[in-house]
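Thread: "does anyone have the structure for this chain?"

Original post by V.I.:
We have the sequence but no experimental structure in hand. Need at least a predicted one for the grant figures.
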Amino acid sequence: MLTLLHISDLHFGPPYVPEVGEAVLRAAPRLQPDAIVVSGDLTQRAKAVQFEEAREFLQRLPEVPRVVVPGNHDVPLYRIAERLLTPHAMYRKYIQEELSSVCRLNGALIVALDSTAPRRAISNGRIGKAELAFCEAAFRATDDDVVKIVVTHHHFVPAPDYVHDQTMPKSRRAINHFVDLGVELILGGHLHRGYIGNSLDVYPGVHRDRGIIVAQCGTTTSRRGRGRERAKNSFNLIKISDEMLRITHYMYFHALDDFAPVSRHIFPRPGRSFVEGTLHHAD
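Reply from O.Q.:
Generated one for you, tokens below.
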């Protein structure tokens, strides 16, 4: 069993909520993750003091492998010269040098892709041919039975609610490529509300039987929740076994001063199927 804690959109700076952040730090050890995924927007305005606070927060999490990608808020917005010339300088100084990275775990391979595009898009992201090539090189070099996971900040599919969001350009191209590579799960943020489903909910795809599970995380520690998670905070806990992939969506409750599960989503792994409530190997 592999357990991943998925947090996102911390937004250190004015929107950050300290009591919620402390609740995350209390909950994380209790959940015993094998790795922690942070899908971008660690800061609100990419300032040194905000990155320092974000780094301190990450250091207080359990000492397990950590997968981190930058978000659009982690590059300067109003410091235009910096955004055009050295957009990730602060992120690289305080968080990590790599913008895209590969994390190998027991039975899983996580490819984190930088989806920020500071010279082309301020808010919306991009996944270009270079990122797809990086992803392909990592996944082609691994065994077929390894769980393949992609992490980006920006979303490939819109959340199915009344708030209309623009997905990344050429999202379908990327998803089709991921399907061909055998990716099982995409983790992301940016929307400030959770969504757990399948890429086939939105895109018909070129393989009707091979969609990808998509898990978007809400804002874990800020006041910037949107849609059905307006003024709310959330994270995802993912458990992967040989038979199934289970995602539990947690939300913060002020009355408890803690996070508690609000929904659970169970998906059979490739080659498995649910039959009369029991998991079977598919023919």
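V.I.: this helps a lot. The mean pLDDT is 93.
O.Q.: and Residues 10 and 42 are 5 Å apart (CA to CA).
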